[in-house]
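Section 3.1 - Work completed
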Amino acid sequence: MLMNLHVYLLLTNHKKTIKMKKIILLLSLMFTFTASAQYGILSAVQLNEGAEDQYLALEAFFGPVHDLAIEKGLENFQAVWKVTSDSADENAPHYIIYTGFGSKEQLDAYNSGTQDWVALAKEAHKGSISASRVERIMNNVSNESKERRNYHLMSVDNTVFAGSIEPGDIMTITPTKALNDDFENYETIFWKPYIEKAILMGQHRYWGLSKVYERTENAYEGMTHFFFNFPVEGSNWWDGVIDQDSFKFQKLQEGLNAASEHSDPITLELVSVHN
């Protein structure tokens, strides 16, 4: 009897150890954008008709330039996303570019216009593209786009990021308008823990909330925040996480609805990433 109890305890402890190792492994595979992208510029790009191939060639040209810019500390992160969801808005973007920065000072320096990007591009492509061709390409930047609307963002809160980010990954962004001062607290104090539980259960990859603090004149005025979500394909993140019939959840939903208005989520597919 004592021997059986001893074996049982050994097996139980072994299972707990394996479970803990799995949790530690999962956490070790997670990283957070906050260290590299506390601030960001989200650029909504609407292309001229028939200019997609030209645009993608331009982004491929800029890949080594972004790598060098990151190496020099001019930016921390850059990603290009293709919009894959439909929209009734005739001015809806075809691509989203997100450039991340570790501080507002870094973003302001990037946006100041003092950086010689032509010289940087020549350095990035030295030995592969002639300096004269680099100049021609740089002088024709934006010819492929009809409009670019830029939003300067400050991170409010986010979860850890499960796994790594690769071309082909799917993300949704949800433009949102805050209706009262409780909005950020509802999202970060009450809603975020549900998402964190879903991530630990392998049902979601990332959730982030950013606030718009500046925008270009042509950018839409009706949004104050953006949500960023990385789903797990084939998974409903709320399964086993939220009891949607519970009194607690219904009251939380009432508070959230009173605090914000959400536009339809925009589905994106990652084209390229530099970090």
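Second construct:
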Amino acid sequence: MDALIGWIGGKRLLRKVIAPYVPKDIKGYIEPFGGAAWMLLYKDKWGDLEVYNDLDNRLVNLFLQVKYHPDELIKELDWLVASRKLFGDILKQEGLTEIQRAARFMYLITRSFGSKGDSFGTSQKRGTSSMYNRLERIKELHKRLDMVIIENLSYEKVIDKYDTKSNFFYCDPPYMLGYTYENSKQFSHEELCAKLKKLKGRFILSYDDNPEVLKLYKGFDIKHVTRTKGINRKEGKSEFNEVIIANFDLIDINQNSEAPKTKAKGTREIRGIS
């Protein structure tokens, strides 16, 4: 299933690479940095327990309204036409209900350039994006979220709450060198690393590929990934290097074998994700 909205750092492309490495024997699947939930939505069910969490209350509110009030959310979105003036008016609105907040947040993200929610986005070739398919997707997502627990906590509290040997955590924190958004400005990568080193369960962590990340997670199993850039594409550079890090051996459950090793001990490489 596709995500309902675009999101900075979304894992639309990388989830195809990560999914085969998620262990089959997990009881619970937890995302401390849920974002648009691309990984969560890749399968109909990951485990008996599924937890979506994000610190951004706008995201969490949207998922809550999809789960509990999908019809009301669709009605609220139905009259929000593609308009630069309406976009600007919505940016200024206050005193809204939770359903209205969710609808307007989704509208701003969908209608904005790069899914950043701050400027009305259009294309000379395609105009603006269609909302109709997304309204249909709300109905699908409503069913998918039926048994999913939705949290609005810090990643530390979510880990403390759900950490057991049988649970699995997919962590997609703010990247060290990536786009900086409000909740990531004071983020401590060192504190996250210290937290994950004490984890009872298993985790997979996605990050930008840079020396500081590799230094922090020295000794963990690391896979290097090269993919086509999306929102943060810079002129003249079409590829982006990322790493997948785990506290267990990264073995592809579909192939039942490890990917070929590269130069550095404990690291593996795949290319051409698009």
